[in-house]
């Protein structure tokens, strides 16, 4: 098990063109046993509202409790799914939470990745800036929209939704321009007039709305709505084969965190606020989190059919070169 990383400050986050769908952790260098004689397991996640299960597990010590005294747990946060998947493929992290789009895209291209549980669903919202003059989809032609990454979960959801209205991005012959960036920057982009629309995850959507952005497509209406796993728990097949008991306990801790969220909303909210502040140096208003919470559902369930349909949409939108077959991507046996 390898460890390697870099703590990203809030200033760094603002310079990275992401969230995403979709933040940064402590440093890791060597693999295997530590000088203490302990094995190290590195868990990755993002400083987003849909990644709260990882924040709860960290705060409550659920991974430490489940994996035992001989395993040291390290946490590393990421600005986007691409960075997360690179870390997983290179062994910098062992498991963690990430959006389904980068997972499916990487899997379709032969990457060793396995979804072992769901974490959250819903939470994607499309909002327009006050300066854009956009009141509905009729007004978005020739405008510029932003997402955390090209082909990220929120990008695919929005562009799939637009197909029913015969609207497409300029990438595939339409008039709607697309750019990418960190959701923490979106308000600044709106104010500068650089972008008009954002397909953005919570809590950033609620922040933009509070600052005057208009909801154009809400979570319940966008493609795949609340049925699509917005965040999943993943690891590699190699890690499963070499550490089956560890993986079982990782899922056990994850399930405990999800259960805690659903039974202790206010405490979970407060933990999320503090965790995001520590990572991004930005303290979110409890009212913002409460608003965001209404659009997100925390669950360990994984709907494989929805994942396949979503991946087919990625292909139809030309994010993937070949039609995907996700057979073998999901292993829910550790949830039993």
From TrEMBL:
Transmembrane segments: none annotated. Residues 1-23 form the signal peptide. Residues 40-268 form the Solute-binding protein family 3/N-terminal domain. CDD domains: PBP2_NrtA_CpmA_like. The keyword Thylakoid does not apply. GO terms for cellular component: periplasmic space; plasma membrane. Keywords: Cell inner membrane, Cell membrane, Lipoprotein, Membrane, Palmitate, Signal, Transport. InterPro entries: ABC_SsuA_sub-bd, NrtA/CpmA_ABC-bd_dom, Solute-binding_3/MltF_N. It is found in: Cell inner membrane; Periplasm. GO terms for molecular function: ATPase-coupled transmembrane transporter activity. It holds the Pfam family NMT1_2. PANTHER family: ALIPHATIC SULFONATES-BINDING PROTEIN-RELATED, TAURINE-BINDING PERIPLASMIC PROTEIN. Belongs to the bacterial solute-binding protein SsuA/TauA family. This is ABC transporter substrate-binding protein. It comes from Aeribacillus pallidus.
